[in-house]
Amino acid sequence: MNEFGGGTVQVGSMVLTHPERFVRWEQLHTDCAGDEFSPDADGQFDCAPYLSFVGGKVEFDAGGFSDPNERYGSVSFLLPQ
User: Can you tell me the distance from the alpha carbon of 25 to that of 38, in angstroms, rounded to the nearest whole number?
Assistant: First the structure.
């Protein structure tokens, strides 16, 4: 399978070309799974950047993803075969 996690560049490009994707807070927020990182440099890659719609605007932040949340989904892309 040719699937990979979307990073901030790919997800940011998606938001710029499809602004209708973020218009209200009830929509699924995006977790940029392709840019997971280890904040303590201990080999535990348990944080990732994410985009969400809060207060009428799109916000970019990063945080832990060890606890599942129904409001966020990891972005993935597929390469054609």
Answer: 28
